[in-house]
């Protein structure tokens, strides 16, 4: 078992108006095999948490820690984080002109494993994973995310997840912009990684819809840069009924 531990994390960003604190003391422990949902209103800092775990240079960690099996993640480069077993699916995936999906996947796999995958099994694995995610074979030769629809980008991310086999995946609004069919296909891919690979998952979402397909054991509600409430799946059900109003009222009352 591996453990990703976030302790009292404070993160700020530099804006034109000066330094803006975003995360105000976030603590969260995820073990492999566990699925945690982070839910919360827009602007509560969910993507900031994801980007900080991934090592995005824009975000400054003021205090607190992130460790993976005791190793200091904050001291690792983005590449080292990937090799240590962290995978981030971004809310807005980037296009990589001039790099085909096939080359991208093989380069990433080689970088993460420290050796090139055996060509015959690799090609078979890629084809099988693409078929399961209903990605047309010709996508293999297309440039990464270039001209992909929102749903195609998300499926491509889950393809990476299935082939790279990380210990932990941070999925930031993987459900956004997906129709129900695409949502099912993407969720099945995540569930395969959880069930077959013991993936630890941090599922970041504004809406409860994806939680019908990927079942979290733990739900954390993010409000104004910290965790306002934690619970089990029943908390997601309650949010589906009641929304976030309750928390925002509490927030403005103390502001
Ligand atoms: P969420 O993902 O929950 O919607 P974000 O982490 O994207 O929240 O944003 C949290 C807060 O930080 C928001 O107030 C947002 O405007 C601000 N923020 C995030 N990134 C930037 C940025 N690059 N520049 C300015 N403000 C930012
Ligand atoms: Mg947002
Ligand atoms: Mg976000």
TrEMBL record:
Top-level lineage group: Bacteria
Pfam families associated with the record: ABC_tran
Record-linked InterPro entries: AAA+_ATPase, ABC_transporter-like_ATP-bd, FeS-cluster_ATPase_SufC, P-loop_NTPase
Tagged with keyword ATP-binding: yes
Name listed for the protein in its UniProt record: Fe-S cluster assembly ATPase SufC
Listed GO MF terms: ATP binding; ATP hydrolysis activity
Gene name, Swiss-Prot/TrEMBL: sufC
Domain ABC transporter: 4-249
PANTHER family documented for this protein: ABC TRANSPORTER I FAMILY MEMBER 6, CHLOROPLASTIC
UniProt cross-references to Gene3D superfamilies, sorted A to Z: P-loop containing nucleotide triphosphate hydrolases
Family assignment from sequence similarity: Belongs to the ABC transporter superfamily. Ycf16 family.
Alphabetically ordered keywords of this record: ATP-binding, Nucleotide-binding
SUPFAM superfamilies noted in UniProt: P-loop containing nucleoside triphosphate hydrolases
């Amino acid at each position: 078992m591996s453990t990703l531990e976030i302790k009292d994390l404070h993160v700020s960003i530099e804006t034109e108006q000066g330094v803006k604190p975003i995360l105000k003391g976030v603590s969260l422990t995820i073990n492999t095999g566990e699925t945690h949902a982070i839910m919360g209103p827009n602007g509560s800092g969910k993507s900031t948490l994801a980007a900080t775990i991934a090592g995005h240079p824009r975000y400054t960690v003021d205090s607190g820690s992130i460790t993976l099996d005791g190793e200091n993640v904050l001291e690792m480069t983005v590449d080292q984080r990937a090799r240590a077993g962290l995978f981030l699916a971004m809310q807005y995936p980037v296009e990589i002109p001039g790099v085909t999906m096939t080359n991208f996947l093989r380069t990433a796999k080689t970088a993460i494993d420290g050796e090139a995958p055996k060509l015959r099994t690799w090609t078979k694995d890629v084809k099988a994973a693409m078929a399961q995610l209903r990605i047309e074979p010709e996508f293999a030769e297309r440039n990464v995310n270039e001209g992909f629809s929102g749903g195609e980008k998300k499926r491509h991310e889950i393809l990476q997840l299935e082939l790279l086999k990380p210990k932990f995946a941070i999925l930031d609004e993987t459900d956004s912009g997906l129709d129900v069919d695409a949502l099912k296909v993407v969720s099945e891919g995540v569930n395969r990684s959880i069930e077959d690979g013991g993936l630890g998952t941090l599922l970041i979402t504004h809406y409860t819809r994806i939680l019908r397909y990927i079942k979290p054991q733990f739900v954390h509600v993010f409000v104004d840069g910290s965790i306002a409430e934690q619970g089990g799946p029943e908390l997601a059900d309650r949010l589906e009924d009641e929304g976030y109003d309750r928390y925002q009222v509490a927030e403005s009352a103390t502001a």
